[in-house]
Amino acid sequence: MTKTVFYVEGMSCKSCAAKIEQACNEVGAIKVQVDLVQKQVEIEHDPNSLEAGLLKEQVEKLGYKIV
Ligand SMILES: [Cu+2]
């Protein structure tokens, strides 16, 4: 299991957090934790079946920028 942490620009409310969480879950994330204060998303995933790059794509597809 791997933990990937992203700093997400433009994520500001609970609805952003829910959208991001859902998008990550859709591709098979095991656990998604969103910290709106730190603008940080922590994702637990199996790197063999789900690469960090795909998670990044999922979040960027929603219109957020990962820094
Ligand atoms: Cu929002």
Automatic annotation (TrEMBL):
Protein name from the UniProt record: Heavy-metal-associated domain-containing protein
Residue ranges occupied by any HMA domain in the UniProt entry: 2-67
GO molecular function: metal ion binding
Alphabetical list of Pfam families matching this protein: HMA
Superkingdom per UniProt: Bacteria
Classification via SUPFAM superfamilies: HMA, heavy metal-associated domain
Organism annotation: Brevibacillus laterosporus
